[in-house]
Amino acid sequence: MLTYITWNVSPDIFTIPEFMGFGPFTIRWYGLLFAAGFLIGQQIMTHIFKKEGKPLEDIDTLTLVMVAATVLGARLGHFLFYEPEVFIKNPLEIILPPFAGLASHGALIGILLGLWLYTRKRQSTGQTFLWLTDRMIILVALAGAFIRFGNLMNSEIVGKVTDVPWGFIFMQNTEYSQYPRHPAQLYESISCLILFFVLFALWNKYKTTTPRGLLLGVGLVWIFAFRFMDEFLKENQVNFEDTLPLNMGQFLSIPAVLLGIYLIVRSQRNGRHPERQPTTA
C-alpha cells in the first residue's frame, strides 16, 4: 500500500546548446503542454466548424486571437490580482521574459474579451458570442487539463501537507520537499479532462440546437466551483492571502460560478432552437 509518491521529475525535457551566439534554449514540459492545448484545440475547433458549416478560413484567425487573449489576460491578471505593486515598481517585468506568473482568472477575462472582439464582425456567419464561447469552453477545458499537468511537471502550485496514500513529495521544489502533499494540480487536471469529455459529448449530441450559453455555463460552474474547493488543499501563492478568510483564487472564482449559473438558467429559458435566441448573443 502506498504511503506517498516521490515526485522527482525534471521540468526540463532537453536543452539545445548555444549555436552561433544564440541559446542555449531549454524545452520544458510546461511549455510543450501549453502549446499542445492550442494545437489540439485547433483541430477540434476545425471539426466543429465543419460539422456546423462555419467558414474554415476563420480558424487561423481564431487561433491567434485565443493565443493572444489567453497569454495577455493570464499575464496581466497575475500581476493585477497577486502582485499589483509591480505595475508601479517595475512594469517592464510584466512584458519581459521569463514570463513567470499566469492567472487562470485573468485568462478567462482575456478570452471572453478577445472572443467578443472576434465575433463583432462575424455575426452574419452565425459566429455569435455565445455560439462561439459555448464551443470554445470545450477547448478551454482540455487546455486547462494540459496546463495543470504542466504545473505538476513544474512541481508548482503544490498542495498542503497530507497523510493520504497518494500524497506527493515534490523533490524538485525545495521549499515544499519535506512532507507528502496533495497533488492539487493533478486534481484540477483530471477534473478539466472529465469536463472536456462531458462538454464534447453534449455538443456532439445537440450541435446546432445546443442551447446558447449552456456549455459555457456548465464549464464555468464546473471549473471554478472545483477551483474554489481545490484551493482549500493548496498552499497560498502569495503572503497577503494568509490574512484573508478565503484566498484570491477563491474570491475570483465566486463571480465566475455565479455567471455560469446565470447562463445555464438563461439557456433553459430560451430553449434549444437557435432561431429563438437573440441574434446578438
Please supply descriptive tags for the structure shown above.
single chain, mainly alpha, two-stranded parallel sheet, 9 helices
What is shown here, in short?
With 281 residues, this protein is mainly alpha-helical. Helix content is 57%, strand content 5%.
Order of helices and strands: EEEHHHHHHEHHH
Q: How many domains make up the coordinates?
A: 1
Class by SSE composition:
mainly alpha
What's the helical proportion of residues? 55-70%
Unreliable runs, pLDDT <50, ≥5 residues?
275-281
The termini sit apart by 53 Å
Indicate the radius of gyration in whole angstroms.
Answer: 20 Å
Sheet with most strands: 2 strands, parallel
Strand portion: 5-15%
What does the model show?
- A 1,2-diacyl-sn-glycero-3-phospho-(1'-sn-glycerol) binds at residue 148.
- One of its GO terms (molecular function) is phosphatidylglycerol-prolipoprotein diacylglyceryl transferase activity.
- This is Phosphatidylglycerol--prolipoprotein diacylglyceryl transferase.
- InterPro entries: Lgt.
- Helix content is 57%, strand content 5%.
- It is mostly helical.
- The chain has one domain (5-276).
- It has a two-stranded parallel ribbon with strand order 1-4.
- The longest helix has 25 residues, at 129-153.
- It starts with a strand and ends in an 11-residue tail after the last helix.
